[in-house]
Design brief:
Blueprint: E1 9-12, H1 28-41, E2 45-49, H2 55-67, E3 75-81, H3 84-94, E4 100-107, H4 110-117, H5 121-136, E5 142-147, H6 154-166, E6 171-176, H7 183-196, E7 204-209, H8 216-225, E8 230-233, H9 247-256, H10 258-261, H11 283-294, H12 315-323, E9 343-345, H13 351-360, H14 367-383, E10 387-388, H15 389-400, E11 408-415, E12 422-429, E13 435-442, H16 445-457, E14 462-470, E15 479-487, E16 490-498, H17 501-526
Parallel strand pairs: 1-2, 1-8, 2-3, 3-4, 4-5, 5-6, 6-7, 7-8
Antiparallel strand pairs: 9-10, 11-12, 12-13, 14-15, 15-16
The protein binds acetyl coenzyme *A (ACO), 3-methyl-2-oxobutanoic acid and magnesium ion (MG).
Length: 537
Amino acid sequence: MSNQTDRIIIFDTTLRDGEQSPGASLTVEEKLTIARALARLGVDIIEAGFPYASPGDFQAVQKIAETVGTENGPRICGLARASTKDIKAAGEALKPAFKSRIHTFIATSDIHLKHKLKKTRSEVLDIVPEMVAYAKTFTDDIEFSPEDAGRSDPEFMYQVLETAIAAGATTVNIPDTVGYTTPSEFGAIIKGIKDNVPNIDQAIISVHGHDDLGLAVANFLEAVKNGARQLECTINGIGERAGNAALEELVMALHVRRQYFNPFLGRAVDSTEPLTNINTQEIYKTSRLVSNLTGMIVQPNKAIVGANAFAHESGIHQDGVLKNKLTYEIMDAESIGLTNNQIVLGKLSGRNAFRTRLSELGFELSDNDLNNAFLRFKEVADKKKEITDWDLEAIVNDEIQQAPELFRLELVQVSCGDHAVSTATVTLRNPEGKELTDAAIGTGPVDAVYKAINRVVNVPNELIEFSVKSVTAGIDAMGEVTIRLRHEGRTYSGYAANTDIITASARAYISALNRLYGAIQEQSKVNSSEAVLTPQG
Ligand SMILES: CC(=O)SCCNC(=O)CCNC(=O)[C@H](O)C(C)(C)COP(=O)(O)OP(=O)(O)OC[C@H]1O[C@@H](n2cnc3c(N)ncnc32)[C@H](O)[C@@H]1OP(=O)(O)O
Ligand SMILES: CC(C)C(=O)C(=O)O
Ligand SMILES: [Mg+2]
């Protein structure tokens, strides 16, 4: 195999490294929804999880392998340490996939060897071929990563890579695990590998990097210039600590600047061939989906997918854009799937028009979800004159995100004002189907609602983030609420959208509490001990 592919391979790790973002934990169903969106986006490989890490991760990888890893779908990958039990779990979880990959890794930097693995270089050199060969008994497609490559002694890393390739690794991935290198250094590392690993032509060179110094995307682009042909990235750049290289930034840089990058791929400068298999028009909605499901809000000034990425505020810019968009725009908003926020549907629209518009927006809902979303749409349409694509997206994201529904909001009522004590009454249906009502006072209406809900649910938690955002402009705009809770060091997110922000706040809180409550139940099943919490009633 040559390490020159004619396109850059996009390896998406939103569901593995992305999920390592504090608080971004996803249910199996949510992972499946994201995996389907990634397949529509056209990623070549989905790293679906770390099957040995937990039964939930195993199940998610298995489900994605079965339902998304079909003949025409992407390759599905599972991560494993260089250990037989991890590799076996990955091999088993990936079995249903038409095309699978095991990604095994072990650190090569002296810092990691000495302080974390407590192993010598020669021990690592023995483990690598043994584990790659073992992984090969499950699938032909093996990726090997020398973790913390960015701080590893190059000579030792070359030896490790040569050994991995000789044992059957088909991709060697070079991680800048702690986001330490600069673009020219990272480019030189890739060049060094090409020049010094004798059998490197038998493997694809891949890169993986973190954004601790905000350099991950720049590092990857330099790596492409020096021979890297696979990029490991995540939607919205989510991931461990400061996150991973952002898929949308890499893809659009390669797309917009393809004439600059073409020669590095051995093409004519003026070739118009795309550099990746990504359907760029799916970028925006995939970004929104991942943000909503993980609770990781995209900053407004974020490149490509931020709310301001295509907005022009100042007069001179607006004047220029009105005269010719080329003055201040290097890409079309449409190229990432941002429609013109046109009015699409109203309260007299039927199910067929609703389904058709959702499918144009890229949503594939089950009949049940579609029916529920349609009812919500009608409710919103009664209150709001204009239903835009953004409203539809918020309604659908709200609908598909309420699972698992353990507690359900039946009623929320508040009384507040500048001369009143904020008071809230809530009625919830508990997991056993019983209706429970309670009331509380608070510093404001949302605080009162949350206190009343806490009195019913009775799960200790700390609210660490609460954000309200309007979906569109206008007094009748839908409000989106994203919240995060902390319980015993873990974070749980919740999202909801409604024309009434108090209702949205209550639903978002319950959605996060349901995640937290579900996790506690899972844990108590694992410990096979008595339920640790007793909800009221
Ligand atoms: C750079 C990255 O992103 S790596 C991927 C990170 N992802 C995760 O960690 C997923 C979530 N992790 C987990 O659920 C757990 O850590 C597990 C299930 C993987 C392991 O749990 P435990 O067995 O309890 O081990 P623990 O997490 O405490 O420590 C990790 C162990 O793996 C060892 N280890 C770390 N990396 C590797 C590797 N690549 N190959 C082999 N062993 C490794 C460590 O040295 C340590 O071993 P020790 O216990 O003998 O000191
Ligand atoms: C598992 C490896 C590739 C990783 O995530 C890292 O080094 O950052
Ligand atoms: Mg990583």
